[in-house]
TrEMBL record:
Domain of life: Bacteria
SUPFAM superfamilies, per database record: Winged helix' DNA-binding domain
InterPro entries: HTH_MarR-typ, MarR/SlyA-like, WH-like_DNA-bd_sf, WH_DNA-bd_sf
Pfam families (alphabetical): MarR_2
Domain HTH marR-type: 6-148
Protein name, per record: MarR family transcriptional regulator
GO biological process: response to stress
Molecular function per GO: DNA-binding transcription factor activity
SMART domains for this protein: HTH_MARR
Length: 149
């Protein structure tokens, strides 16, 4: 492969991240299935468990398009797992919040989620697991800064 060492590192980082994304999606689908959710539905409901958010805010947090989140949010509302609420800060951008059924569905995922977290902690070690999180967050923040126009 031609190019600089930095280009090689960037390519390896991107390929590793794409693979990791695929692995997380596969594991998430397995964890979410018994609760009657998909990984994408879980992701969107999970984004609003602490506080209701507008679709654009969920999209920003998740790093995906607003249109993708809107499609999933509408589906969650249709399925009774979430609902739209008025947004005092913006009349047209309603807030998405989970219903009790949505909260119950996410709660069904928690035992499998906890078990996977414990297995990863055992595999990586407590400090290694925490360092992995720090490195990924740092990479995301750096890429956000350098990719700005």
């Amino acid at each position: 492969m031609s190019g600089t060492r930095e280009q090689e590192l960037l390519s390896r980082t991107a390929l590793g991240t794409f693979r990791l994304n695929g692995q997380f999606l596969a594991v998430s689908e397995e964890l979410a299935r018994p609760a009657g959710l998909t990984a994408a539905w879980w992701q969107v409901v999970g984004a609003v468990l602490r506080e209701p958010l507008p679709v654009a805010g969920i999209a920003r947090t998740m790093g995906i398009t607003r249109q993708s989140v809107q499609r999933i949010a509408d589906l969650l509302v249709t399925k009774g797992l979430a609902e739209y609420a008025p947004n005092p800060a913006h009349r047209r951008a309603k807030l998405l919040r989970p219903t009790q059924a949505g909260r119950d569905a996410v709660r069904k995922i928690e035992p499998g989620h906890a078990a996977l977290a414990a297995r990863l902690r055992t595999e990586l070690g407590e400090e290694g697991f925490a360092e992995t999180v720090r490195v990924l967050e740092r990479l995301s923040e750096a890429l956000e800064r350098v990719a700005e126009p």
